[in-house]
Amino acid sequence: MNRAEAWDIVCEFVQSDSLRKHMLAVEFAMRAYAEHFGEDPDSWGLVGLLHDFDWEIHPTLDQHPMDGAPILRQRGVSEEDIRTILSHGPLGESDRTTRRDKALFAVDELTGLITAAALVRPTRDVRDVEVKSITKRWGEKRFAAGVKREEIESGAVALGVDLWEVHVPLVLKAMQDHAAELGLDGR
After folding, report:
1. Do 54 and 14 form a contact (C-beta atoms < 8 A)?
2. Is the peptide bond before 90 cis (omega within 30 degrees of 0)?
3. Tell me: domain 3-176, CATH 1.10.3210, correct?
4. In the chain, where the domains are located
5. Is the whole model's pTM more than 0.70, yes or no?
6. For every residue of the chain, which 3-state class applies, written as one string?
7. Are 6 and 20 in contact (CB under 8 A)?
8. Mean pLDDT of residues grouped by 10 in the chain (187 residues)?
9. How far is the CA of 60 from the CAs of 19, 88, 167, in angstroms?
10. CA within 13 Å, CB half, 106
């Protein structure tokens, strides 16, 4: 499967613009991690792009992402890619065995926190967000209350990267490099 085919799946199943942008953010973060680890950015980006394609039809964690797997199989997504997508869900923790699995889990929640940090800035531009902006908001329970910070932390630990020296800066830069595509360029 190529990216255009994956994007067609996203467009068919995801109507929410904000969910599509989240999936793009995860794709860009996954590509950045692939480059960081010397892996294939296309393969890593594909699972990032598709990881939540079924959220609108299966919006509970007892269904998502497991119930989306048959659809992906029908569309020709590889079993390896499907396994990685399944591993990002709450029932997939024991299946997070590869770096790609761990990266998908690690970046998913962090992209939401970074998006929230951009949207509260007067410019609404992710390029104006700094790591210290995230650090400052990290302990504020009411800020981006739905973001599971413990998953961000455990994801960085599982990947073997420092949260503040590698993880947050790498994902932030990936999102900054694609600010316009994410609608986070102040327009």
Report:
1. no
2. no
3. yes
4. 3-176
5. yes
6. CCHHHHHHHHHHHCCCHHHHHHHHHHHHHHHHHHHHHCCCHHHHHHHHHHCCCCCCCCCCCCCCCHHHHHHHHHCCCCHHHHHHHHHCCHHHHHHCCCHHHHHHHHHHHHHHHHHHHHHCCCCCEHHHCCHHHHHHHHCCCCCCCCCCHHHHHHHHHHHCCCHHHHHHHHHHHHHHCCCCCCCCECC
7. no
8. 96 97 98 98 98 89 83 95 89 81 95 97 97 94 94 94 98 98 93
9. 15, 14, 27
10. 31
Cβ atoms within 10 A of the Cβ of 91, count?
Answer: 13
CA 173 to each of CA 5, 100, 117, 179: distance values in angstroms, whole numbers, following the listed order: 26, 19, 14, 10
**Hey, what are 74's tokens?**
């029908």
Amino acid at site 172 = L
Residue-level pLDDT at 62: 76
Contact 111, 25 (CB under 8 A): yes
At 66 the pLDDT is 82
Give the span between the Cα atoms of 105 and 128, in whole angstroms: 25
Pairwise CA distance, residues 9 & 129, whole Å: 31
